[in-house]
Amino acid sequence: MRANRWFSPWIMVAPALIWLLAFSVWPSLNTIRMSFTNAKPLGHNEHWVGLQNFIEIFHDDQVLGALINSGIYMLVCLPLLTILPLLIAVLVEKKLRFISFFRTAFYTPVIASAVVVGLIWTWLLDDRGLVNNVAQALHVIQGPIPFLTDRWLVIFSAISLTVWKGLGYYMIIYLAALGNIGRDLHEAAAMDGAGAVRRFWSVTVPNVRGTMTLIAILVCVSALRVFSELYILTGGHGGPGGQDISLVMLIQQYARGFYGNLGYASALSILLFLITLIPMLVLARINNRAEQS
Amino acid sequence: MTTTTTTDAAAQQPLTRAAKRRRHRTFGEASMTEKVVRYVLLIFVLFITLGPFLWELSTSLKGPDEDIYTTNPQFIPSEPTLANYLHVIQAIPVFGYIGNSLIVAALAVGGNVIFSTLAGFAIARLRWRGRRIVLGLFLATLVLPGEATIISQFVTVRSLGLADSLLGVALPGMIAALNVLLMYNAFRQVPDEIDQAGVMDGATSWQRLWFIALPAVRGTIAVIAIFSFIGAWDDFLWPLIVLTTPEKFTLTIGLQYLSGTFANDQRMIAAGTMIAFIPIAIVFSVLQRFFFKGVEEGGVKG
């Protein structure tokens, strides 16, 4: 039997399409529906509560705290993860001996689970961990720095983890972009007497500007979605007084247990979605402008 | 006046020569100085990226008699021992957790490789009504952060009777829209001429996929397989929401459980993290050639 019928494409696309509808489209619609209810993680006794969940969000100090944390997270990650991976990509671009070893090694933090690296970080930044011990041995500090127990330091510890884990990921994206720059551009610049630094600014940076914008957006969106780093560094509790939380951590907390509230968690999910849209809209705008000019 | 001109001319002469030399250097073999500077920087970054893993490995090998809290930290364990690994195996069912993680990862790799290849091919290379709408649908879901739908995802899995099961953990991630789009992108780059020859010869859609298009996109398939495995093996939030019974934990959840229960035994936690990390590190270092090649072919550029 010939399989070249009109329905062949549909058979090929059917599983992926069914998955898309069942696990992306339907959950999105269902999230909106549930945000107007008080659905519980256990049992099915849910009621329509109107806008109550959204009104509650506006008066919820935890939500405000999570948004402040996310804002800090984004503002610190943005410059670091846009610039440092580019520098590393330039460093590993040249095919030197052992370079594939270095590339693989630099990518290692990306492939490790956030739980694994979170626990490694917890040990490094412990009151009696390596960082504090070395700093004290060198007499840089008198007592241990409370990286994991101070309300604000926890955020910066988690940021350092995110940045460290993200270097290799964005390095690879830059590396692909660097491969597209013609060698003749660099050669021409070198002929004109431009040194390595000059060439970086006048050839490399302008040619990866598009990738840079994309990476900036990706960094912002993933900073807004942070969960595992904060969860592991604070042992799942969100630091002193539960202040070191992100929006996703709040969603997770409301998704579990007897006192959970899937309705409220759904309303928080909608808030998360709307916030992550902001960087994407910025990207769309920049792209439009680039096309016009 | 005259002096300036002479110095200018004098300065220009060596400059062009230096520029020539530099050009020669940069685009042939790197000069000695450049190499040294590059290697120094490479080793510095290497120290930052691998150092934390090595410190954790070192901690996991230290015996109970060795002070791990000293302000005079020693990297090489004085009496290296595997006792901490044994303790972990006795404290939690590590092999069960590894098995659970492998089941979830295998389902993710199989599902994503097979079904995103099929869908990507159909959208990129076949002509059919509705293809643009389907493509648009896949693109549209990219703006959805997974975390925003995780709650109703859980409700869906629960209503399928799969809450607190490994299938429930694996199911939603078995076909990711992003992978369909990556395959679509890869198939689109296959030259039309080769494909048209197949159409002329009367090949069916399935034959065109299997014999003509598939060999050309192996790199992207490798990237998808590697990413799916790593993603499933490392995932934390989703299994944390789905699973409640300790026997069904995946390795990441088990590890978090271990660290909560034995919080004051850093040697044991270190051994646990190494048990979770070493397999994925081996898998990746064996497959890294395919990964980086696939990325260069444009797998990730999108």
From TrEMBL, chain A:
This protein's UniProt keywords: Cell membrane, Membrane, Transmembrane, Transmembrane helix, Transport
Principal subcellular localisation of the protein: membrane
Record domain ABC transmembrane type-1: where: 67-283
InterPro entries: ABC_transporter_permease (IPR051393), MetI-like (IPR000515), MetI-like_sf (IPR035906)
Transmembrane segments: 7-26, 72-92, 104-124, 152-177, 208-227, 262-284
Superkingdom of the organism of origin: Bacteria
Entry's family note: Belongs to the binding-protein-dependent transport system permease family.
Protein name, as recorded: Sugar ABC transporter permease
TrEMBL record, chain B:
Keyword Methyltransferase assigned: no
Keywords: Cell membrane, Membrane, Transmembrane, Transmembrane helix, Transport
Domain ABC transmembrane type-1 as annotated: residue spans: 98-287
InterPro entries referenced in this protein's UniProt entry, alphabetically: MetI-like, MetI-like_sf
SUPFAM superfamilies for the chain: MetI-like
Location within or outside the cell: Cell membrane
Annotated stretches, region: Disordered: 1-23
Family from the record: Belongs to the binding-protein-dependent transport system permease family.
PANTHER family in the record: ABC TRANSPORTER PERMEASE PROTEIN MG189-RELATED-RELATED (PTHR43744), LACTOSE TRANSPORT SYSTEM PERMEASE PROTEIN LACG (PTHR43744:SF3)
Protein name: Carbohydrate ABC transporter permease
Source organism (scientific name): Gryllotalpicola kribbensis
